Amino acid sequence: MEEKLDIPHNRIDLSEPDPVRLHYRGKRTLVFGEHKSAVRCSSEDGNTCPNYWHFSPYGFCPYDCKYCYLAGTPGVWFSPAVKIFTNLPEILSQIDRAACKLGKQTAFYLGKLQDGLALDPLTGYSRVMVPFFASHQYARLILLTKSSEVKNLLDLEHRGHTILSWSLNPPEVCRRFEANTPPPDGRIKAMKACAVAGYPVRAVIMPIIPIANWRPVYERFLVRLLEEVNLDRITLGGICIYRSARQLMERKLGRKNTISKFLVDNKDKPADGRTRFSRRQRIGIYGHMIKVIRECNPELPVALCLEEKPVFEALNLTGSIGRCNCVL
Q1: Rounded distance between C-alpha atoms, residue 82 and residue 119, angstroms
Q2: Is residue 303 within 8 Å of 235, Cβ to Cβ?
Q3: CA atoms of 102 and 164, how far apart (whole Å)
Q4: Res. 322 pLDDT band, cuts 50 70 90
């Protein structure tokens, strides 16, 4: 353990010139610090994201998803340590002030720049956050995770003010692209336990990766998920990756990997600067997934993440624009 009180949490030098080794050294480095601007409102342009409030009691993530978009964000790229911010009471006070100023029910999202529960067995932060939101007139918590560790949540009085959302992929995709994460079976078990405890539960199927035989692979997984978990909402999304994150992904997987071979560099590139699969391919993938969902549960709200308006229009989903995972 080293004490470096004169260095900001996002300027920790891990002294490793190779990007991949730096990335993995960061995954093995835990930094405790304070985050004075942990509560922010997103500012997406060039897609249909409704923009939303989010907050960061943690930074980065100990999991090893090969497609990780966080790896391309500036703070992580230069200093990819996993962070726990120790000023949680101050962060919650900032949320209180923002929510009271807005004067209406407002979601505060945990999961944009971290995994919302991966470090909770170490910190126990959920046992502070959930009661805070349960007692608040306006603030609501939406938490996204791949974790299966939910013991801290099950006995809390949440009053429905905390929405729990899981990022999921079929086992065939998880084994190849989501190293060091709980298996989908464990995540589904956690979802079921939280649903029994009365939490609203959502699912985010993202990124959908068209591996060989992807249609039956995703179909089997969706049918099982929808049969076992009573979902409040489901959101679908594809790869949407910035250049620096793509470079790191290709250093891990090779340039001709299953994801990169479908990415479009010159046409259909959205205005938000992210690289995606072609619009035509995305519409085809989403269309198949939505068909399966509708056959299982016609009433379940379906949304798309970080997508363009023409994609919503092609799928007859314009009514769900702005009603996706990160908002109420």
Answers
A1: 10
A2: yes
A3: 23
A4: very high
* 265: helix, strand or coil: coil
Which value, to the nearest 10 degrees, does the dihedral of the CA atoms of residues 161, 162, 163, 164 take? -160
- The owner of tokens 């949490």 is 9
Residue 229 CA to residue 213 CA, distance in Å, equals: 25
Q: Give me the residue label for tokens 């799928």.
A: 315
Bridge partners (DSSP) listed for residue 32: 84
Tokens in use for 221?
């997984």
Structure tokens at 133: 């939101």
Average pLDDT, integer, range 239-259: 95
Checking if the pLDDT of 45 tops 90, the result is no
Check if the beta carbon of residue 79 is closer than 8 Å to that of residue 30.
no
Among candidate residues 141, 182, 177, the one with its CA nearest the CA of residue 67: 177
For 79, the domain range is 14-320
Q: In what order do the strands lie in the sheet with 162-168?
A: 39-41, 53-55, 106-110, 139-145, 162-168, 201-205, 233-236, 302-304
Q: What is the CATH number of the domain that holds 67?
A: 3.80.30.30
Please give the Cα distance from 217 to 239 (Å, whole number): 18
Whole-model pTM: value is 0.96
The identity of residue 166, as a single letter, is W
Q: How far apart are CA 225 and CA 229, in angstroms?
A: 6
Domain-located, residue 314? yes
Q: How far apart are CA 33 and CA 60, in angstroms?
A: 13
Asked if residue 8 is part of any domain, the answer here is no
What is the rounded distance in angstroms from the CA atom of residue 321 to the CA atom of residue 301? 11
Burial label for 192, CB within 10 Å (0-12, 13-18, 19+), is middle
Q: Which of 37, 59, 40 is nearest to 116 (CA)?
A: 59
Residue for token pair 């009691």? 57
Number of domains in the chain: 1
